[in-house]
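Aim 2, interim progress: modelling of the acetoacetyl-coenzyme A-bound target.
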Amino acid sequence: MNIQKVMVIGAGQMGSGIAQVHAMAGINVVLHDIKEEYVQKGMTSITKNLARQVEKGRLGETEKLEILERIEGSTDLGNARDVQLVIEAAIENIKVKSSIFAELDQITPPTTILATNTSSLPITEIAASTNRPEKVIGMHFMNPVPVMKLVEIIRGLATGDEVYETIRALSHRLGKTPVEVNDFPGFVSNRILMPMINEAIFTVYEGVAEPEAIDEVMKLGMNHPMGPLTLADFIGLDTCLYIMETLHEGFGDDKYRPCPLLKKYVKAGWLGKKSGRGFYKYI
Ligand code: CAA
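Predicted structure of the complex, ligand included:
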């Protein structure tokens, strides 16, 4: 299937990045969120990102305007009725996602592919809330979306081969490298990344070293672009906790137990960069 128009649900950090890369690849985008102010915030972030590309001489001013023209805002899910693909990047909550997918199943033509950018929730369970599980797939982008090359493509139990091929081809069209994985908690990316971040938090909790020292070890010793605690702040500590809980619930193994310090920070509202404080301060 040739994708010409997509709807992206959720205009936050991930959703706006996903909308941007599609518009840059010449695809028309409906950027949807529940409130107009969220849509506007997403549009502002895309505009700023593109302006930076213009400043660096990688994009012309006219090209920037053409990309922005390809993105329309929406607060009405009914606008999904003429898209070939929906990519859902709403909050990480199975009930919310399942209810969005059930609604999309009613609104969109039966041929529309319904993808989710979930970072760890079961694709098969989300698919079960629709009457088209063969058209449901995981399309997991990494943050920051315009920079990171990976798209983790997750097949649910019923995902059709044709749907997988369409999403694989689309990922290439976006300039990304798709990698196919199966539907298990955390998939591959977060099954491996989050226990490392959680272990870094245990290292702070147990007083092994200061956050700066832990990040320095991993940056200079392992060549990671960001230390695990800086990365946790960047991803959002609430998201990190949610993913650890999904892994712990899904596998039951103690090695996935979220660190008590992570839980404490989230309870305190220390969510990382977005709240101004996490393992570091951002004001
Ligand atoms: N949006 C768009 N572009 C951005 C950006 C953003 N938020 N942040 C940085 N960039 C761009 C910069 O403009 C710069 O572009 P050019 O090289 O073209 O000039 C480039 O990225 C490098 O940026 P900086 O020089 O400012 O900083 P850096 O070299 O430290 O790179 C980084 C920043 C790319 C974020 C790098 O630190 C990095 O790769 N960090 C790790 C990111 C990572 O692991 N992401 C995955 C998180 S897990 C996830 O997303 C999945 C999940 O389910 C939780």
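The chain has a mean pLDDT of 97. The longest strand covers residues 136-141.
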